[in-house]
Amino acid sequence: MSSSSSKRGKRSKKVKKEKKGPGNDSRYFSTTKKGEIAELKSELNSMKDSVAKDAVKKVIASMTVGKDVSSLFPDVLKRMMTQDVELKKLVYLYIITYARNNPKTVLLSVNSFTKDAKHRSPLIRALVIRTIGCIRLPNVVDYFCTSLSEGLKDSDPYVRKTAAVCVAKLYDISPDAVEEHGFLKTLRSLISDHNAMVVANAVAALAEIAESTSKDVFKITPDMLNKLLAAMNECTEWGQVSILDCLSKYNPTAKQAETVIERVVPRLIHANSAVALSAVKVIIKYLDVVENNSMRTYVLREKIPNPLITILSGDKPELQYIALRNINLILQKERHLLDKHVRHFFVKYNDPLYVKLEKLEIMARIANNENYEKILMELRAYGNEVDETFVRKSIATIGRVAVKLDGAARKCMRVLLDFVKANPGGEGDGKDRIVGYVAQNSVSVMADILRKYPNRFEKVVDIVCKHGVEGYDEEKPLAAMIWILGEYATIIEDAPEYIEGCIDRFEDMDPDCQLSLLTSTVKLFLKRPDDGKDMVQGLLKRASSVIGNPDLRDRAYVYWRMLATDAKVAQKVILSEKPKMADDTGKIDPSVLKVLISNLATLASVYHKPPELFIKDGKQSFELKGHSRRDVADDDSDEDEDEDE
Description:
Layout: H1 2-18, H2 36-44, H3 49-64, H4 73-77, H5 85-98, H6 110-116, H7 122-134, H8 141-152, H9 157-173, H10 175-180, H11 183-190, H12 196-211, H13 222-232, H14 237-248, H15 254-264, H16 273-286, H17 293-303, H18 305-312, H19 317-333, H20 353-366, H21 372-382, H22 388-404, H23 409-422, H24 437-452, H25 458-464, H26 475-487, H27 495-504, H28 511-527, H29 529-545, H30 550-565, H31 567-574, H32 590-597, H33 603-607, H34 611-614, H35 629-644
């Protein structure tokens, strides 16, 4: 038994030693020999195909780990003429990597590429086309144009779709060569191809070319539009995204818009969120052109909200955030789109902070007279959360709702007043008083509400200013408190005392607080001259001579001269009725919004910036125009004449 087991052990060792193939290619990464390049050179020139193949694998392994094997370029190039598909792929990979280092030597491969471009296998023909597109050398472009032209007209759809993408890559290197050989015309003809993937790749290639040129390379006709819509039902999800992106750049007629919307609506319930968002982008844009109001209302109320909520309800927070950023843009265009879906934007306990903050933004946007009470109840609960950033944003959102909705202002003020009275995180009284950040931020928001609705919440002012400014250590809340003291100096009995206490530490305050204190002191003097006379003289002197801040100094000089010239004029200017404030937080300029809506489901919709602002050498968003068959035929004949010349 022992002898038979030992034989078996020897046999298994032999098998392990002899094991080769794809599963054991890691051995090519473990060599650290000296003089390895010379040895590889010798093996590459071996007469045995198996030795040469192993040598190419070693070269690719060395290239992968960062070793420079560019000196072997001529030797690797010799192995191109092989029937072994695996070896051919490896050689092509090597050529793509080191072609730029050997631009002249690459010319030696032209004949091999041309021969392989006529290979009986469509996989090899497509591989040649893909490699041609990756060799980004202007000096060899003309040599490969014939092979690419044949690839665009190949009988196999796999080769055609690969060639379509190659045209876009070639256009980036040599636009003149692409136009000279009529590749753009051929690409447009591929949109009529019977294979959906070829159509999708042709559209993607034309879209990429359109971004880098001012010419209308698509020349969309009614027939082409129908073919794009038909192909969308058959191609893969990413092909659908390409076609939908193309449609979003097109400016349709009213009739075309209705047809496209009807054909695109089924994409809204697609499992891939990219397809669903791209469909939303097309529909939102085309609804501007639709003349049928009943159709417009039906699509906005019944079709678009549910897909957006479905994407938002996913379990991936990153996807939720992207959905929220896109929804934010859509709501700026269609304000009432999600009015009845406010509960879906309530914060969950396990939401990341960035999702929570974006949900608060959406809640402020969709708040109206029917749903604000639900939103306010939710925001009130958020005031007791642990995360300070989230609580601050929640309190600010209460203020935004109050400023936005006249009917909600009283209830919002009541919630904020409860926060101030409770003063969570605060304690003490008098000079030892500490005001928590919740109460401080509440006062800051209340000041905005008082600006929006002057003389409406005078009882609230009395309660808020009961303890003066003691305990306020944040810049914005302290500035807001000082503003309230000056604005309501006639109501607050102890206003002079509180303002005098602030003047004592004037030099230590932040610039915003100093400006607010200067204005409030002047207001106190104009409203209660006997109480504010001494204070205003001393403060104006300090602000104009001691403080180095030019803004503060200039304002002090203006006030001083007005008061010295004519107190009545000063009263008309300083105590005049101010323009009512409005909530424009996060509001985007209409012209920019139009660009962002046409770029929904892209990075632009996440950053809320046009692509040209964050992409290096970024081109402005392009738009496609409609063409008649005759226009396209005339243009194509002109191109043919240019080619003949």
